[in-house]
Amino acid sequence: MLVAGLAFLLAACGSLAEEQDGNGGPAAGDGVTGGQVTMARATWDTGWFQAEIYAQLLDELGYEVTDPADLTRDANTFYPALAQEEVDLWVNGWFPLHDIYLDRELFSGQLISEPIEPVGFEVPSGALQGYLIDKATADAMGINSMSQLADPSIAAVFDTDGDGLADLYGCNEGWGCHVVIDKHLEELDWGRNVEQVVGVYGDLINDVVRPRVEMGQPALFYTWTPNWTIDVLAPGQDVVWLESPALEADEDLQTSVSGLAGCAGADPCELGWPVNDIRAVANTEFLDENPPIRRLLEAVQLPLQDIADQNARMAAEAEYTDAMLRADAAAWIEANRSMVEGWLAAARG
After folding, report:
1. Would strands 269-270 and 239-242 be described as parallel, antiparallel, or unpaired?
2. Same-domain check for residues 160 and 104
3. CATH number where 144 lies
């Protein structure tokens, strides 16, 4: 469910946080705020609420912030733009999922990891990912793990295009999850019988997966939290989480979750995906020139349930506009004014 009228712009970095040198540039010392911030947001709409909250906080801190909606990007295009100082920051980083973007080289050969960095822990250990199927099929066939799709006859149950492979409704091309799902298909036993269906995620869920689940037809898909998907397709009621082995590279990371509602397997539920931290990511030089922004990003932590509640409101609207998004963010800030003032005080130093 996307906000209409997004402009996919690449704005030039407009930081005015330079040292005063006689040319009119304002100083941005430890306690001084002011200047421009070019802020992006992710293409996934479940991260827009957080982006708008941060934009309004930066405005209260005294910065002139571009509208994040004017620079909506996927991870594949955001991180190079950040490294090239065409944008200052976003707050939609997922780690370790986005580690691949920190390590990748630009066409110039410059390492992305040199000029950019994650900062703060917006939602620590709050981002889960995994695979789900409709509960009716799980109950009827006793499916509780992706590993069972290594059996071609079970995988064929989720074949919607007649090629004999299970259709796994996945992510937009360019998203980190798209890359990881392809790795799962390549490296895990069940992957040989599964293909990823790539497209606009919201459309895939609303136009394909949700109708199939509601009609009692088999459906296999990827999702994450916080996300409106698990509000419209409730785990344990409409769908179930399937367990899956983890990639060998992820074996030392936390990939199991205790007490996960709607897990078809054991407790803790082995999802096969590392639990992620949602974090801001910014250009290092920009942070060094703007200590108050660094301190703000380090201070802010957003309750996972508040994000999930906004995602549910957004999903329930026939058309959720940018104006509604700004109003939701402003209302959240006022409802949490005491906590917000503490963050702003810490930022000002």
Report:
1. unpaired
2. no
3. 3.40.190.100
Q: Pick the last residue of a domain from 227, 253, 270.
A: 270
Q: Which residues, 6+ apart, have CB-to-CB distance to 142 below 8 Å? A: none
Higher pLDDT pick, 27 / 129? 129
Pairing outcome for strands 89-95 and 276-283: antiparallel
Query: What stretch of H or E contains 83?
Result: helix 75-83
Range of the domain at 220: 129-270
Same domain membership, residue 264 and residue 140: yes
Question: What are the tens digits of pLDDT across the range 252-263?
Answer: 999 999 999 999
Q: Are residues 64 and 137 in the same domain?
A: no
Which residue bears the tokens 């941005």? 28
Give SS3 for 252.
coil
Residue 88 lies in a domain: yes
pTM equals: 0.81
Q: Is the dihedral of CA 259, 185, 188, 159 positive or negative?
A: positive
Q: Residue 191 has what DSSP assignment?
A: G
Is the separation of the CB atoms in 228 and 1 below 8 Å? yes
Residue 41 forms part of a structural domain: yes
CA 80 to chain centre: 17
What SS3 class is residue 96? coil
Query: How do residues 258-308 score in pLDDT, each as one tens digit?
Result: 999 999 999 999 999 999 999 999 999 999 999 999 999 999 999 999 999
Number of domains in the chain: 2
- One-letter amino acid for residue 273 of the chain: W
| Residue with token string 């001084």 | 32
Amino acid identity, position 212 = R
Segment 142-175, tens digit of pLDDT: 999 999 999 999 999 999 999 999 999 999 998 9
The Cα–Cα gap between 64 and 62 comes to: 7
Distance from C-alpha of 125 to C-alpha of 226, rounded to nearest angstrom = 11
**Residue 102's pLDDT is what?**
86
Residue 292 · residue 286 · CB < 8 Å: no
What is the H or E stretch that residue 224 is in?
Answer: strand 220-224
